[in-house]
Amino acid sequence: MNLLSFLSRRQTAPVARERLQILLSHERTIVGGGSDLVNLLREEILEVIAKHVKLDRDKVQVKMDRGNAVSTLEVEIEIPTGGTLKLAG
Amino acid sequence: MSKVLVVTSGKGGVGKTTSTAAIGAALASCGEKVVVVDFDVGLRNLDLVMGAERRVVFDLISVVQGNAKLAQALIRDKRVENLSLLAASQTRDKDALTEEGVARVIAELREKFDWVICDSPAGIERGATLAMRHADLAVVVTNPEVSSVRDSDRIIGLLDSKTEKAERGERMEKHLLLTRFDPIRAARGDMLSKEDVLEILSIPLLGIIPESQEVLRASNMGAPVTLNSPMSAPARAYMDAARRLKGESVEIAVPTERKTLLNKLFGRRAAA
Fold first, then answer.
1. Residues in domain CobQ/CobB/MinD/ParA nucleotide binding (chain B) (predicted)?
2. Residues of A at the B interface (Cβ-Cβ below 8 Å)?
3. How does DSSP assign A9-73, residue by residue?
4. B127 vs B261: which has the higher pLDDT
C-alpha cells in the first residue's frame, strides 16, 4: 500500500454508524412497545385466527415498518386450500 | 440498601464475565459487600476467571432446587474480604433454573450483600431473561462493533419489557460499558466512537474499558483485572466505573497504559 492509497482510504466507522442507524430504526418497534412487540402481535393474531381457521404457523408473516409520518403493520396469512372454516357459534 | 445488578450484552464474547469479575472485585475493595452470581448454566466461566474453579462444590442450581443451603454454596474470595461467588452448574441445563427458585435465592442474597451482580449468559433465551428478571439496574456491555451494538439494542428492549421492574411500570436503570475500545483506531475513523455508540443506544455511559493485554493476563492467572494489575489502564477504568455505580461522580476518560522508561526500553516484563 503506498502513501496515496493510505491517505485516500475511506474511514469505515461512519459507514458502520449509518448502517446501524438505518437497521435499528427498522428493528425498534413503534413508540413505547418493547422490542418483542412484533412477536407478541404474531402470537396473539395467530391465536385468534386459529380459533376459526386451521392454519400453518409458519405461513403467518407479521412485518412492521417504521416511517417518519406513519408506521405500517403488515399481516400476511396463508390459508391452505380446503382449509376448513369452523363455525364461530 | 442492596442492589441487584445484571451484566448483560446479548452478544457473546464482549466481556460480560471479565466485567462482572472486575467490577465485583472493585466494589468489594471499596468495602462494599459483594456477591457475583454466574447465570450461565452449562457453560460456567466466572469461577475460572475468579480463580475459584477448584473450590466449587455447590452451585446456583443446588440452591435453587433446595439441595444445598445458600451459605454452603457461597465461595468466599481469598484475596478480597467481602467478595463472594455463587457459581453456575456445569452439568445441568438451563431448565433446572425455575423462576420461583431464582426469585427466592436473589431475595436471600439481597439480605446478605450490598451488591448482587448477575453475570448473564449470551443470547436472549431463558438464562439471559432470568438473569435480568430481578435486577434494579443493568450494565450493558458493548464492543464498538456493529453486531455487538445491534445485540445491545435488542437487550435494552428486553430490559425495558421483560424485567420485574419494567412490568411494575418503573424505569429500568441502564448503563453502557464500552469495552475493548481502541482510542487510536476510533480517532482514525476505523472504529465506532464513544459518541457514535452513545447516540445509537442512547443510554448513559458508565465507562470505557480500553483494549488491553492485561485482561487476558488476568484471566490466565484466575484473577479479576482490578486485582491482578490494579494500576493497568483497564483496571483503572473498571475502578472508575465501580465508583460511578456507587454514585460518586468521576469524570469519564479513557485511561492509557503508563509506560515507564524501563518498560519502553525492555518491552513488557514477563509475568512475575
1. 5-225
2. 11-14, 16-17, 19-21, 23-24, 27-28, 33-36
3. PPPSHHHHHHHHHHHHHHHS-STT--TTHHHHHHHHHHHHHHHHB---GGGEEEEEEE-SS-EEE
4. B127
Quick check: is B272 in a domain? Answer: no
Does some domain include residue A44? yes
Residue B185 domain boundaries: 3-267
Interchain proximity B158–A12, CB inside 8 Å: no
Q: What is the CATH number of the domain that holds B227?
A: 3.40.50.300
Asked if the interface predicted TM-score (ipTM) of this complex is over 0.90, the answer is no
**pLDDT, mean of residues B34-47:** 95
First to last CA, chain B: 40
Q: Where residue A43 sits, what CATH number does that domain have? A: 3.30.1070.10
Strand pairing report for B34-38 and B83-86: parallel
Residue in chain A lying closest to B151 (CA): A24
- Look at chain A and report how many structural domains it folds into: 1
Report if pTM > 0.90.
no
Q: Which residues of A touch B145 (CB under 8 A)?
A: 16
Given this model, what pLDDT does residue A75 score? Answer: 82
- Is A54 contained in some domain? yes
- Which site among A9, A15, A35 would you substitute to test the B interface, given the most B Cβ atoms closer than 10 Å to its Cβ? A35
Residue among B119, B97, B103, B105 at smallest CA distance from B48? B119
